[in-house]
Design brief:
CATH topology of one domain: MetI-like fold
Shape: globular
Largest sheet: 2 strands, antiparallel
Radius of gyration: 28 Å
Order of helices and strands: HHEEHHHHEHHHHHHHEHH
Number of helices: 15
Distance between the termini: 51 Å
CATH superfamily of one domain: MetI-like
Length: 377
């Protein structure tokens, strides 16, 4: 017997079958959807569990955290007796200040520590859209001035520390930050110049610059900046090696970023430019207000990928004797007391690089989603 629904009544919404939604449903759909998927999931799960258990056993359970001090420094005998069965984190406890700050004077290492904190605070403020105003430029200029004042010193109670004694994480952050900040506007100008039809000389110069820089490795540019750059300077003017390395990184990053920006400009529909011209906008106003914002939004992933690559490429400055983070870690292992414990040092260095690179990746992903949502509205 069928029961007729009264006028205006709606049937009760049926719930989906158990096991098709929520975590259980996701597991069934993605990991246990068939016998082949189930077998592969179990096999990979076994490998992952074995690896994680072995790593935890090596890094935590059997690890050596401290060693006694001998007459000639730390005595790592207990670590050597482990024969690799457990990590020797005592090397980090003994060498962490050299790894982070290089040859900077020991009693003054609070200064580069503050500089690292200022860099991180500056990145955090720049990532917050609430700070995207003109005042952010003044914040950058003021913060960078404070950072260099702290690093160099030479006034008041701060002793002067030449930049050939800088090293570790501050050097990596200085080279990466100044390199990318200066290379980005250079890249925009080069990308626009390469697309220029009214200025053929400028277009040719931009093409030559990009192809020449992209045709050689960064190590060769650093070497030329260290050896050949002083030959072209006036007599008596010899920039230090940190400035030479910074110029080489800026030129190298600018060429690669220019191609990324040019890809965004080419992907933009021609109608956007024509509509701006129909409104009577000048070339620079059209580019600044309409073309560039849309083009850069299209290439956020490759831009951030390039940023991450150059952040890690700062380690190549070791070719001209600059103690960046990775080089400081290598030099710390030259201590005979810690020979054979490179894995622990490189794991810590990898964790530091990963934190900065992962933060850039996640921020770019969030920014891309927010811009896509705003465009959808």
């Amino acid at each position: 017997m069928s029961i007729a629904l009264s006028s205006g009544a709606t049937p009760a919404r049926e719930r989906p079958p158990l096991g098709t939604t929520g975590p259980v449903g996701w597991l069934r759909a993605n990991l246990f959807g068939s016998w082949w998927s189930t077998a592969l999931t179990l096999a990979l799960g076994y490998v992952v569990v074995r690896f994680l258990w072995g790593f935890i056993d090596w890094a935590l359970i059997r690890a050596v955290w401290t060693v006694p001090m001998g007459p000639h420094g730390p005595d790592a005998t207990i670590c050597r007796q482990m024969k690799g069965a457990g990590a020797c984190w005592a090397v980090i406890g003994d060498k962490w200040r050299f790894i982070l700050f290089g040859q900077y004077p020991y009693n003054e290492q609070w200064r580069p520590g503050i500089c690292v904190a200022l860099f991180i605070a500056l990145y955090a403020a720049s990532a917050n859209r609430a700070f995207w105003r003109r005042e952010l430029l003044y914040l950058w200029l003021g913060t960078l001035a404070v950072i260099f004042a702290l690093m160099w010193g030479g006034f008041g109670p701060l002793q002067f520390v030449p930049d050939d004694q800088w090293g570790g994480l501050p050097i990596t952050l200085i080279l990466a930050t100044f390199g990318l900040v200066a290379a980005f506007p250079l890249a925009i100008l080069v990308a626009l110049g390469r697309r220029s039809k009214e200025l053929p000389v400028v277009r040719i110069l931009c093409v030559v610059y990009v192809e020449l820089i992209r045709g050689v490795p960064l190590i060769s540019l650093l070497f030329m900046a260290s050896v050949l750059f002083p030959l072209f300077m006036p007599e008596g003017l010899n920039p230090d090696k940190l400035l030479r390395a910074q110029v080489a990184i800026i030129l190298f990053a600018g060429a690669y970023l220019a191609e990324v920006v040019r890809a965004g400009l080419q992907a933009l529909p021609k109608g956007q430019s024509e509509a701006a011209e129909a409104l009577g906008l000048s070339y620079w106003r059209k580019t600044r207000l309409i073309i560039l914002p849309q083009a850069l939004r299209l290439v956020i992933p490759p831009l951030v990928n390039t940023f991450i690559g150059f952040f890690k490429d700062t380690s190549l400055v070791l070719i001209i004797g600059i103690y960046d983070l990775l080089t400081a870690g290598k030099v710390a292992l030259a201590d005979p007391a810690w020979t054979g414990f490179a894995a622990e040092v490189y794991l810590v260095l990898a964790a530091i690089y990963f934190m900065f690179c992962f933060a850039m990746s996640r921020y770019s992903h969030g920014l891309e989603l927010r811009l896509a949502a705003a465009r959808g509205r």
